[in-house]
Structures are given as structure tokens and as C-alpha cells.
Amino acid sequence: MKFKAKKSLGQNFLIDNNILNKIVNTVQVTNKSILEVGPGTGNLSSFILRQNPKKFFVIEKDTNLASHLKNTFKDKINILNEDVLKINEKSLSIDKLTVFGNLPYNISTEILCKWILNLDGKNFWFSSLVLMFQKEVADRIIAKVNTSNYGRLSIISNWKLEIEKVCEIKPQSFFPKPKINSSLILFKPKKNFYKIKNPKNLEKITRTFFNQRRKMIKKPYNQLFNGNLEIAKNLKIDLKLRPQNLDLNKYFQLTNEYEKLIS
After folding, report:
1. Which residues have C-beta within 8 Å of that of residue 119, sequence separation ≥ 6?
2. 96 - beta bridge partners?
3. Distance between CA 103 and CA 111 in Å, rounded?
4. Sign (positive/negative) of CA torsion 92, 26, 150, 7?
5. Are strands 182-189 and 161-169 parallel, antiparallel or unpaired?
6. Which of 25, 101, 118, 230 could be joined to 37 by an S-S link, Cβ 3.0–4.6 Å?
7. Is the pTM of this model over 0.85?
8. Percent of the chain topping pLDDT 70
9. What's the rounded Cα separation, in Å, for the pair 157 and 116?
10. CB 159 within 8 A of CB 259
11. Is 13 in contact with 174 (CB distance < 8 Å)?
């Protein structure tokens, strides 16, 4: 059955068997509990099922596709015909989930940030995330300090996760063909990461600093810390720098200081 991809849901179906094979072999699937986000027509789902997962959940917002998946895979998969942004993934399984996702381009960063910022301390509900993004989004996720792609997404993503780019995927691997390349990224939980009381504060700090990424950080700093220069001095931060010149740790330390200030 041929499905028309819905632009409103950012759909591009992956049809390249070599790439599908590569995705499934990125992590251990056999006897693991799996969650696939945006399975579409079920091409990747078929490859996952061949590896005999212990349990298999899929989240598909498109009702037509959800019933197609139901007809195709019967009771081999648990289908949630819902919006991924509204689901509480922690409630799906007592096992940690291995997550696969050809994420809808229009909400991919929103999904990733939701998953990271809603993590409860060290209690990760997933053991790994194997996710596909537009290449330009992936470049922002893996960007290093002092580069033009480095920003909020790099800092939030690298806070609790080890990140590795697996490969790039050309437009012809999809139907319909997107105009851009995609990248596959593997995320794994870090054992040690900077303690922040409320992740929303990290979001606020990075948003305030990167609001004007080409300007010096003095203005956003003063806005957040009421002009208290002691904190910058103690953290050895030069306020003439631009937001992209501060490394991950400096943003975590600033968040920490901000939390002390508002508590």
C-alpha cells in the first residue's frame, strides 16, 4: 500500500535496506525492550522484529499509518496512536528502553529536549537512543565550543549524554526525497554529569545567553545575575566573550550559581 507523506507531520519514509540494516545493528536489539518513534510504513519495524526484541512499542501519530501497522504486524508490536510530545515514556515499561526514531523533522529538537530535560536525576528510562535528524540539526547537537554551530542544543544534549555520529544518510534513501542530508546519532547515558536541580534553569541560562549569539555575554550575564560581577570573577569568565566561547562546564556552573541566587 502506498502512503502519501504528510508535510504537516514532517514525514519522510526510510526505504534504503542498507541504511535500515545499519540502524538496527547500531545497538543490541535481541531480547531488549524497544521503542520506535514515527515508524511510518513500518520499514525499520520489520528489521527490528527480525532481531527478536523482548517487547516492542511504537508511537505513531498518523491514524492511517497506525492501523496499517496494526494490520501488518498484528500483536508483534504495541502501537500507541498518540503524539510523542504528550506521552510519558517512563510509564511504558519497567525495563529500560532502546529507542529508535526517524524523528519528524519539524519537531525533532523538541522531542530530544523533552527527553533530556525530563530525566529524573540518574534514573534514565532509556539505555540508548538511535535517532535520525536533519544534518544541520545533527551538526548543532555534536558541535564543539568555539564553533558557529555550538549553542543551546549542543549544551543541553551533551549534559547527560555521550553522543556519537554514526553516519550520514543521503536524500535518495527516503520517500519522498527530502532536499537535505540526514545524520544518524547514537546517544548513551553518562555515568557522571553535572548536578543541576532543575533542568529548566539550564534551558533558561542557555536561551538567555544565545538569544544574541553574536554579541558579548556581558548583557545577558547582567540580566541573569543582576550585575553581580563576583560570580563571573570566581568562575573566571571574561564578559567580553561571545556565547559560543564558553564551554559546557561554564554553562553548567552558571546554572548552578543561578539556582543558588533564586533559591
Report:
1. 125, 160, 199
2. none
3. 8
4. negative
5. antiparallel
6. 101
7. yes
8. 96
9. 7
10. no
11. yes
Q: What is the C-alpha to C-alpha distance for residues 150 and 158, in angstroms, rounded to an integer?
A: 11
Are 52 and 145 part of one and the same domain? yes
Q: What is the pLDDT of residue 11?
A: 54
* All three cell numbers of 252: 553548567
Residue whose C-alpha cell is 507523506: 5
Q: Which three cell numbers stand for residue 30?
A: 535481541
Residues 80 and 50 in one domain: yes
pLDDT of residue 1: 47
Count of all residues that appear for the chain in the document: 263
Within this chain, do residues 206 and 178 fall inside the same structural domain, yes or no? no
* Residue 103 in this model has a pLDDT that exceeds 90: no
**Whether residue 93 is found in the same domain as residue 139:** yes
Pair 237, 246: CB distance under 8 Å? yes
Does residue 1 sit within a domain?
no
Is 151:252 a contact under the CB 8 Å cutoff? no
The answer to whether residue 247 scores a pLDDT higher than 50 is yes
Average pLDDT on 217-224 reads: 98
pLDDT in tens, 105-128: 889 999 999 999 998 878 899 999
